[in-house]
Amino acid sequence: xxxxxxxxxxxxxxxxxxxxxxxxxxxxxxLRGIEVEAAVREFSINxxxxxxxxxxxxxxxxxxxxxxxxxxxxxxxxxLPLLHERCPGTLLVLGGPEVSYNPGSWxxxxxxIGCIVTGRGEQGFRALAAGGFRDNKxxxxxxxxxxxxxxxxxxxxxxxGLTNRYIYYESSRGCPFRxxxxxxxxxxxxxxxxxxxxxxxxxxxxxxxxxxxxxFIDRTFNAxxxxxxxxxxxxxxxxxxxxxxxHFEIHPLYLDEEDFAVLSLCPEGxxxxxxxxxxxxxxTLAAVKRSGDWERERAALERLIxxxxxxxHLDLIAGLPFEDMTSFAHSFNEVYGLRPDHxxxxxxxxxxxxxxxxxxxxxxxxxxxxxxxQVSGTQWLSGNELGLLERISRLVDxxxxxxxxxxxxDALAGRHESSFDLYRELVLHDYGSTARLTRGWESCAxxxxxxxxxxxxxxxxxxxxxxxxxxxxxxxxxxxxxxxxPEGHAATKKNGVAFFRSHEVDGIISHQGCxxxxxxxxxxxxxxAESDEFxxxxxxxxxxxxxxxxxxxxxxxx
Length: 558
Prior knowledge:
The protein is α/β, with parallel strands linked by helices. It is 40% helix and 18% strand. It has a six-stranded parallel sheet, sandwiched between helices. Helix 16 packs antiparallel against helix 19. The longest helix has 18 residues. The protein is globular and about 85 Å long. The chain starts with 5 loop residues before the first strand and ends with a strand.
């Protein structure tokens, strides 16, 4: 006997546990007013597929709808036969960008799928539900109403279930750019905005839950002048002292004086920006139809990074047309030289439905036929060269992006023609290393020290000074690891404590305009340079430095 009310499970497999899938909540909100029972179930790619299948089968749903992306495509392919076997009475519905532009191949591979909803799927899924899922069409393509008229994605109940997760939100859809490698460049991905008043109202509900991170997934958040700034100003004025960080993807060319005036007032940690530079090669940018002006972009980025209060993440893409090793090295050096908080050297993905897929043959670009469709070779970069760039990308992530070795990496870069040359040499050193490099501090420190000893043995004292300085700058532990502990450090600390005690009045120490409690000395690190080179380059005429627990640095001479 058929249920009077259909039970629908909206399922997603996220890249990490902390992530959530906005699309599922948009679909759920689109079902409001229809007599169905809908629930969201989220998993991660780290969970065994068999476990996911068992949990979905236990739901006993009439309909299981899966949102498919390049990062979960393979788990979904493994999951579908298990669901078909264990839930023979459940209608399986797919949607999402990974199935929207090649639905025929998915239906051919999995003929038991009920249907695939393509494109911006809220209205298509709502139409299916309103018709009791009796539509016999295998491919459902229904235009959405204007984005401004779409209901809010979350309810209070939804948000209560997302504790300790990232909350995703969109104030716009589509993108003004037409980059050939991006699905947002398609003509059916026109840019639409929600009114600022709607955005602030929907954020008010989200921020009642005090999430750690709200991630705006707008493709270019500041593309429409005034829209992004109004939201930034609202967040600054109403949530500037809260626990939430807000993440935005922006374009530096759209930042104007009014934007900088607002952004300069932000407390540290309120905003973080992700910016796709992709390449600084004009021929490359023209080939992929990405408009821009690197000189102006660089000036805006320099100004943004100089504010020091907004975390800046910059992206490059390897494998684009006309970008050979020399060209990519130049792009890398340009972006690395800006000293962003995070640098990601990613790789071209030739996505179904993009113009890049149609042009790949013309450009001699080969790529994996399965998700994530990553480039494997081009006319300009061989497979071996791309492999080298992948290893450079991993080293950048483990050494630079952690922020734990800034002084050490700068010192090493000074011994090479460029930053790119440094990382290329580090990769070659890694090839010959027997130890596996992990993200742990000790693993990375051993790797760097081994490289320094093998390449620059005469500079050992200088590089050790740099690594000790880095440790003092980032560590929350008030002592040195054994592997970099300076000889005579006990005496250095004793002399330093005595020096600052001589400046103490009523338990407060004041020196060079810096005031701190005398008890802070117990939780501080003392540094004394051992090499003349470090003294000359870093110490500004002093021979000691005190790193306070709050990371203020006081230079002094005993």
